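Chapter review: from sequence to fold.
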Amino acid sequence: MDHTFNGIDFLSALALALLFLYVLFTNEIRQLHKVYIAFHLAMMMWPFGMFSLSMTTHPEYQWYYVNLAFVGISFLGYGWLMFSLMLTRGLYRIKRAGYLILGMPALVAAVLVTLNPLHHLFATTATNWLEDRSYGPVFLYLLAISILYLALGGSVMIRALFRTKDFAFRRQLVLFLLGQTIMLLLALADTALTSTPWFPEYQDMEGLTSLGIVFSDICFVIAIRKNNAFRIISIALREVVDSMDTGIVILDDRHHVLDRNAVATRFLPMQIGQPFPIEMLMEGALEPGFGRSFLSSYFHETGKFLQTEVLVREPGGPSAHVSVRITPIYSDNGVYVGRIVTMQDVTEWRRLVLELNDRNEDLMARNSELTMMQEELSLANRKLELLATTDPLTGCYNRRYLFQMLEYQIAVEQRYHVPFSLLLFDVDHFKQINDTYGHHIGDEVLRHTAAVIRSRLRESDIFARYGGEEFTIYLPHTEKKDALRLAEQLRHIVESQIVETDRGPIQITISMGLISIDGDSYAGVNPKQFLVEVIRKADAALYLAKEQGRNRVVVA
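The token string follows.
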């Protein structure tokens, strides 16, 4: 055979491509359409492969196109079965895993065909793949599963044919079965004439399988377009829309009714093909004058989303609150094509809202009273907390709060080896001041001294009245040299201050005991016991400062 242009296979591939594009662009793509598209692609692979095979003499390229054509045949029968099951979905309930299992024989056949260069069990050639092909057991397996797939798909359709009472659907099934039969007969004839020695005079005849695929696809397309094979989905959608409690109306770009569900007619009488009665609907506008502005937007701002609530009097019943939403519809290229009007009965919701508003007002009044009580209670709690933690005379923390905070700080900071220092000081000769000037002057001296020192401390420092004229300063993250420098600064500041009293000016001094703890010296100790020991040492240092003449700092 000469390597001539194979017109039948080329025209078959071209016809299938055109039919494919026709179905793709004239139908909405749903699950059934996707299955048909895959089925159609499998049909296109055979004539395309055979045509491409006739256009080359290179053995490797020839095998590539033979492989492509027979892979398409591998999935052709499976695609037919899937399409049959999808089209008659009500007869069989198959899960996704079931579809995968059904596709395994086709997948195995495609893999075996592709791996033929390794095992040569599918086909061999002595000269080239176009003129001389000898088929092996894998070809027989492929032929068997293809016939089985077609038989199963046909049995599904035949069963649906005898069970359905819908004449239009029966006509569709007949067309599909006719197309399948044509494809099967011509494919078997092609195999018998070109792959067996029984008809040597027809060995050169090619293209029957491609013609069978084309004729079968023509039957499929006629069934799809003329008899609306995908109408099951539309019927299901109609049932869903009619079962909704929301009225839905589809309008074209001239405000005419294209379609509506049953609920919409309960709110508003309307006819398909007639203008949507928006004026009648807006007679029940809740706000005076709003209906005119809404109608103006409806007729002159077609691309605008509109929403309102109206009162609609149902026939033989009370008025109902209806929420109306008008949404514009645009095509894929952005052109305005119409609107969707939804109407929902919100009477019960409106009643609940009004009832809820009344309850909210009552709750707000009660909440206001509770808020006032909470504020008063919070203020009282803050005062109690202040009284419980501070010294009323100096405003410093009291001794009880000091020990609580120091135990907590030591427990936390010993984990991270944080150094700290503690200052313990008192006012020199304070008893003499009390005896000479009176206790009220002594109190003034303590207040003044506490205020002067507090102004020089950090927010993180803890300044507390330890008892009588004694005070304690806790300095976190402070080593000895920094604590000593601060202690000397405080001592000098106090010494430089003059306390003005009604008995004359008084100059005071303080004595300080300082202890500094590095970060590693108190790891793992009991915080309470350790605190007692630290204060004891600081107190001993303070006592030593007094013995050495007062107005000085002594480091423990």
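Two observations follow directly from the output. DSSP finds 18 helices and 14 strands in the chain. The first strand starts at residue 123 and ends at 124.
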